[in-house]
Amino acid sequence: MGKNAVKLTLAISDYDHVRDLTNGVVGVEGVELQALDFQVEEIFYRFLKFREFDVCELSFAKYVSLVSQPDCDITAIPVFPSRVFRQSSFYVRSDGPTSISEIRGMKVGIPEWAQTASVYSRGYLTETVGISLKDIQWVQAGVNEPGRVEKVNLRIPDGVSYKPEPTKCLNDMLLAGELDVVMSAHAPRSMEEGDPRMRRILVDYQQAEYEYFQHTKIFPIMHVLAVKKSVLDENPWVAMNLLKAFEEAKRRSVERLFDVTASRFPLPWSRVYADRISELFGDDGYWPYGVEPNRVTLSAFLRFAYDQGVTHKPLEVEDLFPAGVQSSFKV
Questions:
Q1: Which of the listed residues 78, 163, 173, 279 has the most CB atoms within 10 Å of its CB?
Q2: What is the rounded radius of gyration, in angstroms, for the C-alpha atoms of the chain?
Q3: Residue 266 burial by Cβ neighbours in a 10 Å radius (0-12, 13-18, 19+)
Q4: pLDDT tier at 331 (50, 70, 90 boundaries)?
Q5: Looking at residue 2, what is its pLDDT?
């Protein structure tokens, strides 16, 4: 790395599809990168509260909320480290509802209104299932421990019932009958421990998620790569160089996944599953970076976020990323 390289800190979880970048196998042209590996909750808190890192993985919902407010000092690159379908995120007691449509009128617990998973799940409820935000009594609390609070300012829509419970947790409230449903990215403790009193509403959630993708073409983006605007104000070329480096690291990860010589992952039939997913999603469609391959998902999320009051004004996809990284490119 040249002596004039820009020094940047990067905080991101240890995903296989970013590892070749964080361990230095793939370099970022013109950048000397110091990679830091923390749990996502710590990354989010330290960046949102103190802006400790130059570049970091960030909650997509928190990001769009900040972009929609005045004097936002961060931007993002269309690199999406985490993507998860969320039809699996509805938890009930064992005697609870057996279909999503039955939760109309019930009390539903969420960790945060502005949790990305919650935004997608509520979008699924309103646009696919046909349950209005006003048809639910929303309760906000920590999943397994009390005291969780919202990290960004909200604009809860008029007529929507939303009540924080700072001294309770969702797991205990569900089992005690104070909630009917918990809707969370992370499973409640009792579910993880195999407690027979708790289950998912959708047992075959994978089929439901695939059907949702087939119907909507939405593959939920959970996290985005945030960058301090001050970094790009001084060196705007850094955005594209980061995007290219992350794309190359992902390409190498996928290459390992499809290695026919030896399995690179400790899973039987991993190549068989990789081939099946490739057939379902097509080429790089199962984990694309960039704007255009993700426009349907990005646009849907912005619609969900505004309708739910996570963003404070309507946003367009072009508002999310620097102009220099919005065009398609080939590494």
A1: 78
A2: 20
A3: exposed
A4: very low
A5: 63
